[in-house]
Amino acid sequence: MTRPHHHLRRRLMLVFAAFSISIAIVFALYALAFAYTTEDAFFASQLADEVAQQRESMHRDGQWSTPRTLGMRLYTDIAAMPESLRSVLREEPDRVEVAGAAGRHYHLAPIDDAQGRTQAWLVYEVSDRLVVRPVRGYWLSLLAWTTLGMTLLALAIGAWLAHRIAAPLSQLSDKVAQLQADTLPERLPHADHDDEVGILARGLEALMQRIRDFIERERHFTRDASHELRTPLAVIRSAAERMSGDAGLAESSRQQLAHIRQSSRQLEQVVDTLLSMAREDSAEPLESLPLLAMVERVIVEQAPLLGERALDIVIDLPAAYRVVCSQGALHILLSNLIGNAFAHSTQGTIRIDLHDGRLRIANHGHAIPADLREHMHEPHRKREGSAGFGLGLSIAQRLCERHGLKLAVEHEDNGETRALVGFPHDNGRLPV
Prior knowledge:
The structure is a single chain. The protein is 54% helix and 16% strand. It has helices at residues 7-61, 83-91, 132-177, 196-244, 251-278, 291-302, 327-344, 370-373, 392-403, and strands at 72-75, 97-99, 105-112, 118-125, 287-290, 312-316, 322-325, 345-355, 358-365, 406-411, 416-422. Strands 6-8-9-11-10 form a 5-stranded mixed beta sheet, covered by helices on one side. A 4-stranded antiparallel beta sheet has the order 1-4-3-2, sandwiched between helices. A hairpin with a 5-residue loop joins strand 2 (97-99) and strand 3.
């Protein structure tokens, strides 16, 4: 297993850096907004003082006076204003700040009478009095360098903190990534720590102990089951062989003994395969098997399931077609699929052939409800009224998964069922 990348450490560093940049940008925006607001408030205060002076002059002398502030002019007619101001005021009469041509900048203040009608405008050209705009580039440059410095500092702090926080977790994840089921360690790094990493390590240790116990129980079960099941089967087969040697035995009894011997051999093979499936480290030998011969053998074994029903069995398989698979696994797979077809067919023909490179077993039986079709491969799932245990397809599915085969079961509303088995690309080939 490859060593995992330590994404957590990089993420912590990136979070710190992103947080620092965000804070720097926010405070830079606030600083600029404060500077511009203060500057505008200063110009507005000067205009307000001049408006009060002009109203006092009009009230006292009946005429406007000359503005006292340098750069401030009084207009009683918009037409007398510069063109850049006239065009703006015609469209936006309430505008109080205008950026003019050639870098000029104006602040405006209307002088209204008692009825709210504008009598005159004070225009304050503040181009030479602007404080923020001349130094804006310098301050933005300073803020940029400050942001860069704070970002580097945040990365350094983030790296240190990430190392302190993520290093134990990284060591634990490296150890977990190297775990093997047969060599589970007794202890994990940092399991004695009184923090989240320690709690996680102790939880994993408890889980590994349960896995070790489970593996040990599985080994004992497969060993004991192998002995306890094979012994009575061997006794049954041996007794049947001795009885078949009796010269006075009736022919019908001799046939029944042959069935018993054949069933015992089949059951021994089933036991071997099922126990092999239960062992994770088992390696069943692969063979090149003639598919037609295996199918014919299974048909003979499963024939009693047909009973008295008049069903046609059509086999259309090339005699030379071979597949590479464990003989026991293929036998169990065919026994389940063909046995199901025999047990659940109600009429018509059971057809076994090749379709699109896959083995197809098709039959007509009871219709499967639509909501149950996708769950038929699950243990104990069966249609209502079925006499089976609902395990056949589950075993077949597990066998296919274990041996790299593809199993698909299709159900039609008219009761037709098709089991399709796909073999790997190097299987199912005809000899040249």
